[in-house]
């Protein structure tokens, strides 16, 4: 089982760092799944995470100049690692002017991701900073816990408002309440609501647009049959929503959410080279 | 100085005004000696045959409060007068500002004994001198919350900085998982849970010899000290654009950072972690300072690790994790030496105020000897030596 990768392009490095920062804001620990073509950051919906789950996927070719991966076995050519994304975020933070960043899976004293940053210096040789990030290797028999979640059979799918606006609204609401209701309909209208004993606040968004979903097992037809005005809502932990929005440092190309009435909200954020899905369960 | 202690010691001497501070656990001491030439006027007062030059200490916050906003001070203050009035028990700070405005601050002070850490730069086997910028750039890779860092020497003359990781089990970077060499493995009754990667990340930085202005180091030497006080000095050095010199010796002996200027002499003395074992062992078994200079090819074989997890057999890893045992330091002084001290506060062999598992020796603070001795004593006779027979 081996893994080595290298980034030399500063723009790629900066983009990769931003992705890691986003993940670090969402969860304390997460699973990194390595395949020949892709990297996945996964958080499964355990109770410890408050039931939220994460699936973030990116193509290694868009970031790494070199990428070599040998999985646990020939027929299972993948590696699953558990790690603390904050560590990786910190390691990359001071690497933004690096000549090269190499990441390697090692096992000197314990399995680690060794991030070696080669920095420019005025002396004849470069400065090298290494960060050994301890990781846990997930054995093959547990890989089933981390399968890609399927898109739920949603009631409403709607594009999100400008994330910056949504973020500032949610941050202020967070001061007033622990829970937020997200409701939307198929006419491009979304409300964010909080309600406490003393105050209730609702922010209305209009003309957001509803994404068309390709027909799959007749999903499209059932959506067409739905009333455009009927509203789907879910009450979720406001902190989870705030973390998701706070972690977005760049505007995604596409941002939408799928709401299953009173069950779960499924966020999909797409950038050019990376897709992020985040599921927040509704509070009963 | 405020990064080190809560009290500012002012000591006028024949060779200038010395400002000093010490931290509560006596493991950090700093002194700034401003030569008479630094001032427009410098009158240390006169010491009589029976009296010494007056010295005192004030609350750091009170003193700093007078100089609160540097940018506005620079614009409005023409002169600053510092006056010690022993009989009125006041330290007077008078700011002469524009438009005829004079601000006078009267600070209460306490008389005090001379604050002097005992250390000897000449006895340090190793010395490094670098522009402050280089060290500041090095330190930026370590998180602000990090407590201790280990400075070491490596092959090829390289200098390393590495965050020091404590571990109760005495091993660094150990994850719950397959046992290491020599321990028989019994298969767990339940499916193997993924090991928790909650161990601390280890960051290591290598600097080439030519980044330093001068390097004189004993090979294989290393010391571990607190980053917090060092960062304070580093930002001062960067702001004043002065090169920083690091004098160090064996683990356990203090590390001394100095800045030198025509009118200013700065010393920061920090206690270092004593590591009794590494003194006797050959350095190559101590994982800290002897990681090879980074190369592309080092062991990254996890096959055996995976095999152990999958098949529940004993694993055949490489060498066991290096242990970094921390022994209880030998008593810092003998009874006789303790009696000689005239400290304001009681000081015992252990370091008060620090957590029990941190084995930093407290710095040694000598008693007052002759009055009027200039600055930090580099050549004064050491009254109270360590009782472990070093000389």
In short:
Chain B: Keywords: DNA damage, Exonuclease, Hydrolase, Nuclease, Nucleus, Phosphoprotein. By secondary structure, chain A is of the alpha+beta class.
Order of helices and strands of chain B: EEEEHHEEEEEHEEEEEHEEEHHH
Read across the widest sheet of chain A, the strand sequence of neighbours is 10-6-2-3-4-18-17-16-11
How much helix, percentage-wise, in residues of chain A?
10-25%
- CATH A-level architecture of the domain at 121-166 and 200-273 in chain B: Box
Describe the largest sheet of chain B.
Answer: 10 strands, antiparallel
Count of separate DSSP helical elements of chain B: 7
Rg over C-alpha atoms of chain A, rounded to the nearest angstrom: 21 Å
Number of strands of chain A: 18
Count of domain modules of chain A: 2
> Largest interface here, residues on each chain?
A-B, 44 and 47 residues
- How is the biggest beta sheet of chain A arranged? 9 strands, antiparallel
Question: How many helical stretches of chain A?
Answer: 5
């Amino acid at each position: 089982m081996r893994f080595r990768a290298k980034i030399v392009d500063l723009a790629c490095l900066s983009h990769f760092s931003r992705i890691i920062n986003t993940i670090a804001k969402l969860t304390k620990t997460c699973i990194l799944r390595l395949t020949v073509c892709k990297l996945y950051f996964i958080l499964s919906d355990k109770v410890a995470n408050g039931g939220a789950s994460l699936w973030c996927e990116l193509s290694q070719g868009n970031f790494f100049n070199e990428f070599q991966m040998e999985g646990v076995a020939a027929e299972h050519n993948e590696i699953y690692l558990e790690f603390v994304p904050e560590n990786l975020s910190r390691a990359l933070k001071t690497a933004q002017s690096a000549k090269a960043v190499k990441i390697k899976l090692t096992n000197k004293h314990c399995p680690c991701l060794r991030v070696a940053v080669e920095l420019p210096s005025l002396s004849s040789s470069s400065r090298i900073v290494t960060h050994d990030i301890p990781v846990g290797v997930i054995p093959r028999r547990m890989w089933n816990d981390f399968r890609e979640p399927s898109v739920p059979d949603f009631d409403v799918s709607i594009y999100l408002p400008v994330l910056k606006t949504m973020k500032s609204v949610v941050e202020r609401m967070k001061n007033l309440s622990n829970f937020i209701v997200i409701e939307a309909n198929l006419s491009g209208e979304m409300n964010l609501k909080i309600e406490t004993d003393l105050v209730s606040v609702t922010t209305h968004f209009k003309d957001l647009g509803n994404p068309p979903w390709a027909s799959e097992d007749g999903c499209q037809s059932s959506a067409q049959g739905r009333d455009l005005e009927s509203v789907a809502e879910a009450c979720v932990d406001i902190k989870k929503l705030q973390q998701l929005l706070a972690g977005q440092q760049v505007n995604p190309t596409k941002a939408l959410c799928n709401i299953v009435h009173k069950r779960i909200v499924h966020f999909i954020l797409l950038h050019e080279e990376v897709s992020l899905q985040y599921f927040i369960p509704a509070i009963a | 100085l405020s990064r080190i202690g809560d009290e500012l010691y002012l000591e006028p001497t024949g060779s200038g005004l010395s400002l000093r501070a010490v931290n509560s656990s006596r493991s950090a001491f700093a002194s700034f000696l401003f030569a008479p030439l630094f001032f427009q006027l410098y009158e240390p007062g006169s010491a009589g045959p029976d009296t010494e030059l007056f010295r005192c200490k004030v609350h750091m916050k009170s003193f700093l409060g007078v100089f609160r906003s540097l940018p506005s001070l620079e614009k409005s203050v023409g002169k600053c007068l510092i006056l010690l009035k022993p009989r009125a028990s006041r330290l007077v700070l008078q700011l002469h500002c524009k438009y005829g405005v004079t601000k006078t601050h009267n600070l209460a002070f306490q008389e005090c004994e001379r604050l002097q850490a005992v250390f000897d730069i000449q006895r340090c086997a190793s010395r490094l001198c670098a522009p402050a910028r280089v060290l500041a750039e090095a330190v930026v890779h370590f998180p602000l919350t990090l407590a201790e860092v280990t400075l070491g020497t490596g092959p090829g003359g390289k200098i390393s900085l590495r965050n020091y990781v404590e571990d109760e089990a005495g091993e660094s970077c150990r994850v719950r998982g397959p046992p290491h060499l020599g321990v028989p493995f019994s298969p767990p009754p339940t499916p193997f849970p993924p090991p928790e990667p909650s161990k601390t990340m280890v960051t290591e930085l290598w600097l080439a010899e030519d980044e330093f202005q001068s390097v004189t180091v004993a090979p294989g030497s290393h010391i571990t000290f607190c980053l917090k006080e060092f960062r304070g000095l580093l930002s001062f050095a960067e702001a004043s654009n002065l090169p920083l010199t690091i004098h160090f010796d064996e683990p356990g002996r203090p590390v001394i950072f100095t800045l030198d200027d025509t009118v200013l002499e700065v010393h920061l003395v920090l206690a270092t972690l004593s590591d009794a074992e590494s003194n006797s062992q050959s350095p190559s078994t101590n994982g800290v300072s002897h990681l090879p200079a980074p190369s592309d090819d080092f062991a990254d074989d996890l096959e055996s690790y995976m095999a152990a997890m999958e098949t529940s057999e004993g694993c055949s890893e490489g060498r066991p994790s290096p242990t970094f045992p921390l022994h209880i330091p030998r008593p810092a002084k003998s009874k006789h030496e303790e009696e000689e001290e005239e400290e304001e506060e009681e000081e015992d062999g252990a370091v008060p105020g620090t957590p029990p598992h941190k084995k930093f020796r407290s710095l040694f603070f000598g008693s007052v000897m002759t009055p009027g001795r200039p600055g930090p004593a580099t050549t004064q006779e050491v009254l109270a030596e360590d009782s472990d027979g070093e000389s």
